[in-house]
Amino acid sequence: MYPQQNGVGSGVESMTGYVVLAGASRGTGREIARLLRDRQQPVKALLRSEAARAELEGLGIKVAIADALEREAITRAMAADPVRAVISTIGGLPQDGGSRADYVGNKHLIDGAVAVGASRFILVSSIGSGESAAALPPPVLSALGAVLQEKEQAEQYLRNSGLNYTIIRPGGLKSEPATGNGVLTENPRVSGSIHRADVAALVCDCLFSEAATGKILSAIDRQQASGETSFEILRL
Ligand SMILES: NC(=O)c1ccc[n+]([C@@H]2O[C@H](COP(=O)([O-])OP(=O)(O)OC[C@H]3O[C@@H](n4cnc5c(N)ncnc54)[C@H](OP(=O)(O)O)[C@@H]3O)[C@@H](O)[C@H]2O)c1
Questions:
Q1: Can you list the domains of the chain with their CATH numbers?
Q2: Quick one: pLDDT at residue 166?
Q3: What pTM, to 2 d.p., does this model score?
Q4: DSSP for residue 14
Q5: In angstroms, what is the span from residue 182 Cα to ligand 1's centroid?
Q6: 235 CA to middle of ligand 1, Å?
């Protein structure tokens, strides 16, 4: 199957190739996978295990097995088919006491995206990374310190990569149905919660938005803001 173009908006949809998605096995990545297929986008999921293969293939998604911590596996998986954009939601706990993927895994994905000439990279990071540390209370910051440090390194690496990027920093994630109240803002002092399904919708909207290019955006549910409650919303 050669992927067809089918987007709306600008830039990415004028290219052929897959939207490569890392993190599709569960959580926000799985929600993104579903939404991209609803929007008839050709999706290739990079998974580190076979567990989610059947469900994703059932959605019409091409699956490649590649652990983000293994540089060569990622390079190979990326180069095997044309790629127009890459989305990464990888994170969570390391497997079997191994390393976290938040920095090194994303670095490999970013290098792979550069190598294949992807036109866009969307990185799902976290509120608390970089200047958005100001949004979190000190005890939360210190509890998440090591993860946030890796997230920030990945963000920096992406910003210096030359790729057209969007960095989306969600607040606390909940696995509940979409509310439709998810919003993006450039204000780094905003904090709160957001449902994974709403983050997924924002990621998909950003994929085809010129307004989101080169931006670092916090994502919260406007009804679940816990920090600054008056802020400017980015219109995509
Ligand atoms: N939890 C929160 O409240 C919160 C708040 C803000 C931001 N975030 C960030 O938002 C993003 C999405 O979070 P989530 O909770 O929806 O996701 P999640 O359920 O934690 O899923 C993480 C995904 O990353 C994949 N992954 C991890 N290491 C990998 C590796 N080495 N190679 C390939 N895949 C790898 C996992 O695959 P497996 O299924 O194989 O493990 C899984 O698909 C993450 O980056 C997270 O850190 C989370």
A1: 12-224 (3.40.50.720)
A2: 98
A3: 0.95
A4: G
A5: 19
A6: 26
